[in-house]
Amino acid sequence: MKNKRLAVILGFLAVLAVGAAIYSSLGSKGSSSDSGSSKTAKVGVLQYVSHPSLDLIYKGIQDGLAAEGYKGDQLKIDFMNAEGDQSKVSTMSKQLVSNGNDVLVGIATPSAQGLAAATKDKPIVMGAITDPVGANLVKNLEQPGGNITGVSDHNPAQQQLDLIQKLTPNVKTIGALYSSSEDNSKTQVEEFKALAEKAGYKVEEYSVPSTNEIASTMNVMTGKVDAIWIPIDNTIASAFATVVSSNQEAKKPIYPSATAMVEEGGLASVVVDQYDLGVATGKMAAKILKGTKPADTPVEIFNTGKSVINKKNAQVLGITIPEDVLKDAGQVIE
Ligand code: TRP
Description:
Blueprint: H1 2-38, E1 41-47, H2 52-67, E2 75-81, H3 86-98, E3 103-107, H4 109-118, E4 124-127, E5 148-153, H5 157-167, E6 173-179, H6 183-198, E7 202-208, H7 214-221, E8 227-229, H8 234-238, H9 240-245, E9 254-255, H10 259-264, E10 268-271, H11 274-289, E11 300-302, E12 306-310, H12 311-317, H13 323-328, E13 331-333
The protein binds tryptophan.
Tryptophan (TRP) binds near residues 108, 130, 184, 258 and 274.
Protein name: Peptide ABC transporter substrate-binding protein
């Protein structure tokens, strides 16, 4: 009698247990398919330093991700800014890897290099990297091979030279101001110099180890050159106000390689659109999140520019901008 009752209880418990197991497996199936569609993508972003161009690229990245559906609670961005500090680049890179992000994005060459040193298997998307091969980030632009792909902003150097020739035909010596610590700048200076020398210019290089040497270097170079050219260089871009204030008396025409610097006190340039670079980077990060492998995703290259003319600065320098240049300009700052 006692055993029978025990058997009934055990049987009842067994039925309960099986029922619970079936229920929970159904439940977990249901909830796992739910979380499949609402799984939050984690994107780690490392920006090298703050300057208006990189800030705009970051905005574009967010918009590019959103355009592909990664927004609101579908996306968690783990954003860090190294403030131009190399030791922060390496600690933050390691942090972003260990935080369990699905995809990493490096804005500007030093941060992409930091991320590349921190992981060989997590996918990395390069945000606006001037020379991915020269910076040792990918072996081949068409077939990157490793865990890295992304977007490259190749400076339209020949177009810039043509503009220098049109706006300031009397210029003979051009000073190139750039940072000696940025791989992206070295290759641009080489390319610009070769093209300029072919066109009959003399190019003098003025490289600075950090923002601290910009003012003193400007003081020397403004006495020796007819015009100043600046590549897509983060160090110079982040302290461009110093470049402008150091040129107050010498009043040399400055040809920088980004819209923000033309707005801040440059004369003119031919530039790649920074926001577009960001959007393309964000869309590529979305593609990788959806499962595409960096190894066989070609690097997307932006190498043609539109001209930006600062008419106000032209007036200050006593330069008249030819009508056809104004008519063809992508942007005129009045
Ligand atoms: N291309 C630069 C790099 O590789 C980063 C960059 C993008 C930049 N836009 C810029 C630097 C504008 C200066 C100004 O590091």
